[in-house]
User: Fold this.
Amino acid sequence: MTSPAPTASAEAQSAPGVTRDHRSGPARRDAEATKAAIVRACRHLLARHAHTDITLKAVAERAGVSAPLILKYFGNKDALFSQVMNFEADVEAFLDAPLEDLGRHMVRHLLIGQSEHGADPILRIVFAPLHGEQGDILRANFRTQVSDRLTECLHGPDAGLRAELAVSLLLGLGVMYGIARGPHVRSAPIEEITERYGPAVQAQLTPGTLTG
Amino acid sequence: MTSPAPTASAEAQSAPGVTRDHRSGPARRDAEATKAAIVRACRHLLARHAHTDITLKAVAERAGVSAPLILKYFGNKDALFSQVMNFEADVEAFLDAPLEDLGRHMVRHLLIGQSEHGADPILRIVFAPLHGEQGDILRANFRTQVSDRLTECLHGPDAGLRAELAVSLLLGLGVMYGIARGPHVRSAPIEEITERYGPAVQAQLTPGTLTG
Assistant:
């Protein structure tokens, strides 16, 4: 399980909207940063409006880019939405740790994403009810790309149920941090929450081993 | 911690829309059933639309009652929404167990609500981003009526953080069951999930005690 996604620091360094992708190196990095800004803007809007009510113009305005640039990168609005409703790119880094440390890794990874980028690898499943039939696509993607993918990493009986319960723990932490905005969770050091919460995730992944 | 709320069975027995509240006994029960149906309809819509876009007529249609009946019971639309954005009535029964068994009790209570009534005592916090300033009211209520209320039940250091982490676990289970609709969680017996997941909740409530 490797992590081919653009690094967070590259995203942070490049200003969105600056595109020079006829050049190499920095230009490619800028293009990735702009795409990431568009995806973030789209995620923000999909958490608040039915996808049928979201215009390309609204995404462009929020991302600070032009609508034609979105079309250039993503083809059309539906293709952009499909990408946002897909978990594959995020799950790669989320699962990128040895099984015996995966519980703590996922907790830490989620909290870093939430606190540093306001992003969460899996939380957007909670907005499925907003999106009618598209919500069912989101659910199907979530099942195959998150729950089933984690199940494949596990050994022993009831792996499917244990994977769903581990994912439940991580969804709940994302809701508490990013939506309910619990003051204690938001002010505690990431490592402290990782130590307190990671073992509960790990207990679902590798039951019967020492997790404390 | 007692549970004065109308019982689920009374709700299930009475058809919504039938009101005879000039009489006593069954009439009062019917009125409660109708109010519950209106609240359920309102919750359903608030999970899918900004509150500013929800009409009294839409709530009435979904609940199978007339709009004037809603006004009779709740006064006005804002008062109805305030009640739906309040957790107090639900948290009463959710927390109604001795501390040493509270983890399992909350897991069981949540799963019974989800599976038998399609309702969850705390999950509606996830729709806060839909509702602008009303979402902040929902967050404030959640903090005082759910997290802080649970904190008051706990002993020892870091009770506020431990309460938020316990609530995180329960939020995540609600998301997995009711929104992501995880097939394993939905098909496993409630007692099995309670035995697998309850100890993780309990470990936040009473750390250091045996929870397995």
About this structure: Chain A has two domains: 18-84, 88-205.
